[in-house]
User: Fold this.
Amino acid sequence: MAEYRLYGMGESGNAYKAALMLNLCQLDWEPTFVDFFHGEQRSDQYLAEVNELGEIPVLEHEGKRISQSGVILHYLAEKTGKFGPATADEAREIWRWILFDNHKFTSYFATLRFMYGLNKSGETPVTEFLRGRALGAYGTVEKHLNGRSFMAADRPTLADISMVGYLYFDEETGIDRGAFPNINAWANRIAALPGWAHPYDLMKRGFPQK
Ligand SMILES: N[C@@H](CCC(=O)N[C@@H](CS)C(=O)NCC(=O)O)C(=O)O
Assistant:
């Protein structure tokens, strides 16, 4: 049995944030597939035994079950000494970007991709709203990366590992990463790190194939 277990599935960029960290740190881990698209994360058993929040990812280690990707990333940095802050200022900067990521950079984009890219909703007022919000967050990150290689320090940190979570999927969203040269170069920089792998190569996919 592997030392670390990650509850997730391939289409989840939030689960990918944790999977990527586990892989970059070369930890002994294995995924447990959660049948998200059939609602397993909302089942009584999952809520009672895995995560009362009804979400993936969840990291299991030494009898603990830890949820929220940002918390999981910090836990793994504590365990490994990798990708964490070197100073109190860096710690604040990492948290600032992870919170921005969870609220704005990931969440609007992820919901847009789910509706438009996976569920093929077509264009609706909701997808237009989500794309507008996601583009706003992309603009903020594009500007921050001007003259910088990484988000929170002069080396890759937890902030980067969190924020690239949805950047390697290629389902149609109406947002072209290529139109954001700084974001594009940064995502490629992270993809060049030893241990990087695409989310679909780390966890089983669950979206029902029609
Ligand atoms: N802030 C959380 C977000 C986790 C999240 O929303 N995960 C999605 C899958 S990508 C989920 O489980 N959603 C279930 C729901 O919202 O009902 C994190 O970073 O872990």
The first strand starts at residue 4 and ends at 8. The mean pLDDT is 98. The CA atoms of residues 5 and 60 lie 5 Å apart.
